């Protein structure tokens, strides 16, 4: 197996539409468009939104709407879901929504699918009602979606209009080994949530590659890794800015979620040693530092994992610093 160079790897953006302290979702969405337009100019391949619910600091509860907004404000970058939590929705509705998006923005829409609820169990009940065990139907629901998108479904009793006959790439998302097996069996590209679930990443991509069955849409396995990135002009500045993402994940672990907090000089007075260890475990695949430092870290990561694409998510408090972080990360990926 020949080693990949960073210039061989596609690089993309995952946007959680994070709401920062002192601002509103309306501000967040304007910043997302600003970032997507910059990402397009910097050579990023795709711009995805993740579906989350009942999180005051995360405004990506309606990815399909945001995808339309971003696609309408850009020209060439692919826009999609990372992902739609399929058990929350009827496959027909997803097919119609993404069929509509693909009709408006041809050859630019991606449909990433996950099986988790994207929220807590109480909110999942509010979304799914009597369908709380829908996650068990995930493989069949993926097949239903593929059927609805197929051109030969013209004589089906249930048809997606728009959607039928459109070429909308389906990705399987995962944070464990279950989805790896499904993506392999169906011959679909696989995106792993290593930005918050690093523990199963290496095992999952190994399983995916070993069990991959070529399909009409994909001849070879294709692995995308989502990672945390905080880039700045110096390592010290990046570490300072990264205290915002550490506070964000501390909220995930403790259940005390807040809007994204400003960076702090030290986390010592904010977290306990146990919270620190838990956060650092979740942030196992995080690239924090200057261009030079991240380039070294990223080369090691690519050599170890042989991923085909990296998707960067960046929880940086100040919008201009966040834009700069993504600009620097593009430099990392484009330099020989």
UniProtKB/TrEMBL annotation:
Alphabetical list of Gene3D superfamilies matching this protein: Luciferase-like domain
Start and end residues of each Luciferase-like domain: 16-302
CDD domains: Flavin_utilizing_monoxygenases
UniProt xrefs under Pfam families: Bac_luciferase
Gene Ontology terms, MF aspect: oxidoreductase activity, acting on paired donors, with incorporation or reduction of molecular oxygen
Coiled-coil ranges (or none): none
GO CC, alphabetical: cytosol
InterPro entries: Bact_Lucif_Oxidored, CmoO-like, Luciferase-like_dom, Luciferase-like_sf
Source organism superkingdom: Bacteria
PANTHER family in UniProt: LUCIFERASE-LIKE MONOOXYGENASE
NCBIfam families, per the entry: oxido_grp_1 (TIGR03558)
Family of the protein in this entry: To bacterial alkanal monooxygenase alpha and beta chains.
Protein name listed in UniProt: Luciferase-like monooxygenase
Native organism: Mucilaginibacter gracilis
Lineage of the organism: Bacteria, Pseudomonadati, Bacteroidota, Sphingobacteriia, Sphingobacteriales
């Amino acid at each position: 197996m020949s080693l990949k160079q960073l210039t061989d790897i596609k690089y993309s953006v995952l946007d959680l539409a994070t709401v920062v302290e002192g601002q509103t979702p309306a501000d967040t969405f304007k910043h997302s468009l600003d970032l997507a337009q910059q990402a397009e100019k910097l050579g990023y391949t795709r711009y995805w939104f993740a579906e989350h619910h009942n999180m005051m600091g995360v405004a990506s509860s309606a990815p399909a709407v945001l995808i339309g907004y971003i696609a309408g404000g850009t020209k060439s970058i692919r826009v999609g879901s990372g992902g739609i939590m399929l058990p929350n929705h009827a496959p027909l509705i997803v097919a119609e929504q993404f069929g509509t998006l693909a009709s408006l923005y041809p050859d630019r829409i991606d449909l990433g699918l996950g099986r988790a609820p994207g929220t807590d169990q109480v909110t999942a009940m509010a979304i799914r009602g009597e369908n709380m065990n829908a996650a068990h139907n995930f493989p069949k629901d993926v097949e239903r979606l593929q059927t609805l998108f197929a051109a030969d479904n013209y004589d089906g009793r249930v048809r997606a209009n728009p959607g039928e006959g459109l070429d909308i790439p389906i990705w399987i998302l995962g944070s464990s080994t279950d989805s790896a097996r499904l993506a392999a069996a169906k011959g679909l590209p696989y995106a792993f949530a290593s930005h918050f679930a690093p523990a199963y990443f290496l095992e999952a991509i190994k399983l995916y590659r070993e069990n991959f069955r070529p399909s009409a849409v994909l001849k070879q396995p294709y692995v995308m890794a989502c990672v945390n990135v905080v880039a700045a002009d110096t390592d010290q500045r990046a570490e300072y800015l990264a205290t915002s993402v550490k506070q964000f994940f501390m909220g995930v672990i403790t259940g005390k979620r807040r809007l994204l907090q400003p960076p702090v000089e030290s986390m010592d007075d904010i977290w306990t040693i146990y919270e620190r260890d838990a956060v650092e475990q979740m942030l196992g695949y995080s690239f924090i530092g200057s261009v030079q430092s991240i380039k070294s870290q990223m080369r090691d990561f690519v050599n170890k994992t042989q991923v085909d694409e990296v998707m960067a998510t960046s929880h940086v408090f100040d919008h201009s610093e966040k834009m700069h972080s993504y600009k620097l990360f593009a430099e990392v990926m484009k330099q020989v």
